[in-house]
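## Example record

The block below lists the input lines for one assembly entry, exactly as stored, with component labels intact.
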Amino acid sequence: MSRDERPSRVPVWRAFLRPVPATAALIVAVSLLAAVFAPQLSALSGNDPFTYHADTLGPDTAPLGVLGGVSGEHWFGVEPGTGRDLFSLVVYGARVSLLVGIASTVLATIIGVLLGIIAGAVGGAVEKLVDFATDVTLGFPFLIFAIALSALFPLEMPRALLLTAVIGMFGWPGIARVVAAETRVIVRQPYVVASRVMGARFPHVFRHQVLPNVASTVIVYSCISLPGRISAEATLSFLGVGVLPPTPSWGRSIGDAISWLLVDPAFLLFPAAALFLVTFSFNILGDTLRDALDPRGAR
Amino acid sequence: MSTDDELLALRDLRVTIADRTIVSGLDLSVRAGRVTALVGESGSGKSMTALSTIGLQPRGAQVYGSATLDGAELVGRSAQEMRRLRSGRIGMIFQEPAQSLSPVMKVSRVFRDVLGVREGLRGRAPVEVRTRELLTSVGLPDSARTAASFPHELSGGELQRVVIALALSGDPSLLIADEPTTALDVTVQRGILDLLTRIVEERELGVLLITHDMGVVGEIADDVVVLRDGEVVESGTAKQVLAAPEAPYTQALLSAVPRLSESLERTDGPRAEDPGGTESDSAPPVVRVEGLSVEYYRRGGSHRALDDVGMEIRRGEIHGLVGESGSGKSTWGKALAGLVPAHARTFELEGVDPRGLRAAERRAVFERVGLVFQDPASSLNPRRSVGWSIGEPLQLAGGLSRTEIARRTRDALELVRLPASFVSRLPHELSGGQRQRVSIARALVHEPALLIADEPTSALDVTIQARVIEVLREAIEQTRFACVFISHDLAVVGSLVDQVTVLRQGRAVEQGAAREVLGSPQHEYTRALLESVPDPERRLRGGDGGAAA
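Predicted structure tokens for the full assembly:
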């Protein structure tokens, strides 16, 4: 009888074989590779994101040619005003966006899981404290705080670190709440009660009883929240408090493109499309992962 | 056997889901004024049969064959027609009354909706009158209070009566009852069974009773169909099937039902020779508790779950705690394991009072306690292998090498008669009974002084329950630990324990040797409990007398 149950456990990767998740996975993989190999990729087109190409610009500093100057030399055209290669800008922009997005998600997840499990498992005053901290963090005006902080932050320090810290520190409440709620259920399960009666202390319960059982929720939740963090970085860069020029970033490129929208719409198109495709793909992956890890979802 | 009085007739009913046969060729008939029981263990397809008959089979299920209600074919009808048929002709009662009613609706509101559909009643006054009439007819005299209540304000028995009243609206000719008393206490079950019997007599309707409990069958069924893996094993009148079962499976089902009379004879046997364990006279008893009280504090008040109770258990002795839900029996077990704060004059585990000790020492005392819980689904960590779970107490105790833990894990598996290959399995790959045996193995692996088993067999089928109890009994005989066995099932308790305490609302109403308490109960509550236990043979024995009365 128990033999029959085994085949019903479909391996998780099977869920990613369907066309839409597979495409999403491909896009994420390509963008990750682009971020890692950005210098090589832009060198492939014979450009880098810092050289000005005044010859590609017309007298009004708008790019010459169709679609913002798309040509064999400049695959996505050039940036108006400076003539920098847009393909290189987008490829280098992936570095900042993905680095900040992933690093801040990891940070938020670690803080959230730790606080969530402690709150759910210990209960009492500790739980109230974590709840309070959650409420305070959620009530904080994130954007205003981030803008104010970037003014205080010395310019010499790496901006990506600041962005990661700010986005990560504001991102943990959501995951902490989800994990705390799950932990509260798990610690009342008989197997945890039995383990405690047999002398288990908190570290054992944390490592063996709670963590493995919240793991799938945590993975899915962070995967779903990742695109939001990438957008948050883009938002901050768009507002001019993200990474400093001349470091390329999707958010800043989009911000710059707004003022050129009527003259050169293609300038907005490429970075915005990159941002949209990556966040959309991460969302799809998160959803797929959630369905794949949910045993009830398996038909 | 004329067929014209057949109310519901199933002929060669087959149900398949995705090429898997759930029910294969079922014949069954329900007659007006009679109860037909469909008996089987979990997974036998009995609920699926009932649901398919009335067009409520799950999506993706294919139903073949024929089901006729008063001669009208039911299989293959459109959902619309089935809905109309169900609303006028069929009533349904489910197992879990608390889940049969919406928690946010008052009972009166439910009746308003249901009466509107099933009896076409509109307007406040006629609905109220009819609601009162229905509630009174199911033995809820204070119908105004019941109607004004939310489901959580009613007891399980009251709720099930409300559900029955709802099922009786529209004067159905067929009532389908899917395990109507399984979730209820025995004394409440007795009331519901009496009510069903009365309804059948008064209203001349036919009942299709789905149950796993041969005791319930013996109490009210007229005809029986025994189902196993979707196939009919045996069918006939209740008298035939219960008195002279032909199929080996039916015989096994019947013999697995624990019987009080038999179990009392058993306690006369080997245990009488070594009462209390002669060798342990010098050693302190494993458990000595006096004046134990547990109070739960909730918002704006407290609730005394246990009130001044006590017990003493020696090595190799099994103490049964019996009572209905809310009697405090589980609280007692938790108090012994140190899981709830308790007040007691004396509280000693192996002669040591853990209350005055520091945390580490207290932990060492409670480490000598093993726990087995009711629900096999949640008593093992779903993400850890069986071997890990069994070895966990040893890992926690520390000081043992990995090979030593593996060896003791294998020994524990052997003790509960499971193959050593189970070590690498995950809990969801095991059946309920196997999981429960793994729980027992985990509780026994570090050779505890005391095992607390809280309803360890209540969620299991009878045949599996019998095996688990056998395993438990053997383990106790081998390792001679003390055991607290908590159960609502008097027959199970009687078959296993030496001493018994009958609990009611936190107080011990009767305590003593199992044979005396269950054999010749002194307290009226114990007597009421004993009389409520459904017995497959009660009507067979008193068959002639019952007919004359």
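The interface with chain B takes residues 1-2, 5-6, 189-200, 204, 208-209, 212-213, 215 of chain A (CB under 8 Å). Residues 86-122 of chain A form the longest helix (37 residues).
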